[in-house]
Amino acid sequence: MTTTYAVLSEGLEKRFGEVRALRGLDLAVAEGTVCGLLGPNGAGKTTAVRLLTTLLRPDAGSARIAGLDLVREAAAVRRRIGVAGQDVSVDGDLTGRENLRLFARLHRVRDAAGRADALLERFGLTGAADRPASTWSGGMRRRLDLAASLVQRPDVLFLDEPTTGLDPAGRGRVWEAVRALREEGTTVLLTTQYLEEADRLADDIVLVDRGRAAHTGSPAELKALVGAHAEAVVTGPDAMAGAAAVLDHLTGGVPVLDHERLAVGAVSTDPTLTLPRLVRALDAAGVPLADVSLRPPTLDDVFLRLTGGTEKEIEEITA
C-alpha cells in the first residue's frame, strides 16, 4: 500500500547569521497520524515549525504540506493548515465566543457561530464563553487558542508545545481533542517537552538534534534502542559507590546517584539484562539493599540516551 504524506520535507536548511538552525531536516509524516517532534532546547524544533507553517522561508531544501509546495504555493498551504504556537494569540478584549467567531469569519467558515459553539463545547469552555478572554485563566486561554486553530478544519495541524501551563484536566482535554482529530483524518505535528505526552499521542516520533532528524520511529521502536532502567536503593550512603560500580559494569550505562533517596540508577545498554541477574550481582558485591528494580525504558530514557540530555550551547532562535 502506498503511503500518502501530509508533511514531506527533504534537506531543509535555515540560517540566522552564523547559526545553522536547521542542517538538512528530512520529515515524512503520513496522513491521518500524529507525529511527535522531540529534541533538546536549541535542536531546531520551533524553527522547523515556523518554516513548515510558512512563517519562515527555507534557505535550502524543499517541502510539501498537504501536497502543496511550501514556497511556491505558500498561500494555499496556509488555507490547509492550523497552527497553535507557544504564545497564545487570542484577543483578551473579546469574549471567547467572539474570538472563535472572528477566526471563523477570517477563514470564511460558512456557519461561524455554529463552529464557534461546537469548539467551545469540545474544549469545555462553554460556561465562560461570554466573558472577556482577559478574565480567563492561562490554561483556559491556551485551550481557546487551540480551538481557534481548528475553526477551518485543517488538513494538517501544527501544535507547538500545546499543553504548556495546563493543569492535568486541561491537558487531558487537549489529548482527547488530538485523538479525536486523528480519528477524523487530521494530521498532527506536535512538538512537546512532555515526553509522556508524545508517548501517549504520537504514532511516530522524530528526534531532532542539531538541526537534523537524528532518529525516527514509533515510541516502541525508539524504546527498543535503549535498555531498561536499573535502580538500586541502598541502606546507607557508604554503599552508593559499590552499587554504582556494579551498575556501571552490568548495564554499561552511566550511573546517576540520588543522595537524598540513597538510590543509584542507570540505563542499561544490554537488552538481555534481567532483574535476577541484577540482584545476584549486587549481592555478590556485598551491596546492602533496601530495594532494587528494573523497569522498561521510557521516552525519557530514550531522550537522555540519544541526545545526551543537555541543552545545546546555542539556544534555538525563534524569531
The portion of residues assigned to helices is 25-40%
Instruction: Outline the biggest β-sheet.
Output: 6 strands, mixed
Q: Average pLDDT across residues?
A: 90
- Protein structure class: alpha/beta
Would you spell out the secondary-structure blueprint of this structure?
Blueprint: E1 5-16, E2 19-30, E3 34-38, H1 45-52, E4 60-65, E5 68-69, H2 74-80, E6 81-84, H3 96-106, H4 112-122, H5 138-148, E7 156-160, H6 168-183, E8 187-191, H7 195-201, E9 204-209, E10 212-217, H8 219-223, E11 229-234, H9 240-251, E12 256-258, E13 263-267, H10 275-284, E14 289-295, H11 299-307
Parallel strand pairs: 3-8, 3-9, 6-7, 7-8
Antiparallel strand pairs: 1-2, 1-4, 4-5, 9-10, 11-13, 11-14, 12-13
Task: Describe the structure in your own words.
Strands 6-7-8-3-9-10 form a 6-stranded mixed sheet, with helices on both faces. Strands 2-1-4-5 form a 4-stranded antiparallel sheet, with helices on one face. Strands 12-13-11-14 form a 4-stranded antiparallel sheet, with helices on one face. It folds into 2 domains: 5-223, 3-Layer(aba) Sandwich (Rossmann fold); 229-296, 2-Layer Sandwich (Alpha-Beta Plaits). A hairpin with a 2-residue loop joins strand 9 (204-209) and strand 10 (212-217). The relative contact order is 0.15. The chain has 11 helices and 14 strands. It has helices at residues 45-52, 74-80, 96-106, 112-122, 138-148, 168-183, 195-201, 219-223, 240-251, 275-284, 299-307, and strands at residues 5-16, 19-30, 34-38, 60-65, 68-69, 81-84, 156-160, 187-191, 204-209, 212-217, 229-234, 256-258, 263-267, 289-295. Mean pLDDT is 90; it is low at 310-319. With 319 residues, it is an alpha/beta fold. The chain is globular, with a radius of gyration of 23 Å.
